[in-house]
Amino acid sequence: MVEARQSxxxxxxxxxxxxxxxxxxxxxxxxxQAASVMPKGMNLNAARMGxxxxxxxxxxxxxxxxxxxxxxxxxxKRVYGIAIIGWSICAFLTAFAGYLAASAAFTAIFVVRxxxxxxxxxxxxxxxxxxAAWFPTSERGRTSAIFNSAQYFALPIFAPIFGWLIHIAGxxxxxxxxxxxxxxxxxxxxxxxxxxxxxxxxxxxxxxTIERGGGLVNTDSATSxxxxxxxxxxxxxxxxxxxxxxxxxxxxxxxxxxxxxxTWFPLYLAQARHMSVLKVxxxxxxxxxxxGIGGILGGVISDKLxxxxxxxSFARKVPIMAGMGLAxxxxxxxxxxxxxxxxxxxxxxxxxxxxxxxxxxxxxxTSPKGMVxxxxxxxxxxxxxxxxxxxxxxxxxxxxxxxxxxxxxFIACIAFCVILSYGLIVGEIKRLDFSSPQAA
Length: 440
Known about the structure:
By secondary structure, the chain is an all-alpha fold. The chain has helices at residues 9-34, 46-62, 64-74, 76-97, 102-120, 123-134, 137-148, 150-169, 172-192, 204-212, 232-239, 242-272, 277-307, 312-327, 339-356, 359-366, 372-384, 386-401, 405-424.
């Protein structure tokens, strides 16, 4: 009797998560790239641009806990799919706002960015939840790194496209493009995303591989009981663990770096390095590509360390702390007079940040069963408070000093804080079991 061939549906799943995550980050960064050519009447200086970034970041952070509860209650496919539709509509509305008077356009875009932030809030809790369900522990490092690396690949993939579109058709074309792409991805999402055991193309052998390896295959099962995790008791319980608090603090710092790279880096190239819109698109692609490579490499290194017998704590912490050490190199850009040298140090910093961005892997490793969405949401809430603080800190630094040097020093200090958090606070990394008496 010929043994049934094992399917590989989980690799299709992570591919879709990567593509959708790239799309999400492209939407977040498009405004920064378009800002320099938007109407002068909008007066998009560093401070006013900071307000638009703040609008998205505040709403994105605010939406984390509700999105985590909704994901656990109604499932990843439904909640995540509605989110894609929602932020695609917001992209269309941003383009329409361009036809308003300049002052009205700024207000309209501010409001739309709030809704876009709310709609995008389920993306990464949903990613973490789907990876915890679809992948065994030994594969989570690289798979979480793949979807997390979208923040880096989004720049080299979309920045040249946006630069070209802006050059030939104006800034609104970026948002028309995002809206149309969102419609396509919505169809792809609903056609391919299911719970592990409900997927029409998965083999019993693959289900067994995932479940035997520690995958939470019943997470989105139609027959599993769905409980309401959106309670203050759940939040208080999660916050009572030092390990999780250390991971949350680390993610806040890592996300601060992410927000700089996604939103302020294109402005840094245009304003501090005096590059044209077209050059910014291609220049931003180089460090972004390095960050993406580092992101994949960090996950591979972590899984290899785990497979060679090292503890889960060692396998996750070493790439995180070493990567953040490299990220500190961003401060060398202040002393680089040539564009090439600046891009080298910025690329090195992106690369290190990519290696160290394994927080979502840790969430998949540590979340109590039935609370993956809520733990991921709380983790992402702490992380994306950086979406509020980063523009409010960097904007005034740039305005008052007329330089980005202080901003780069700030980013280097934040990278060092990640090392302190994982080195001094986190302790042993392990899955929490709230049903166990020892969990308290």
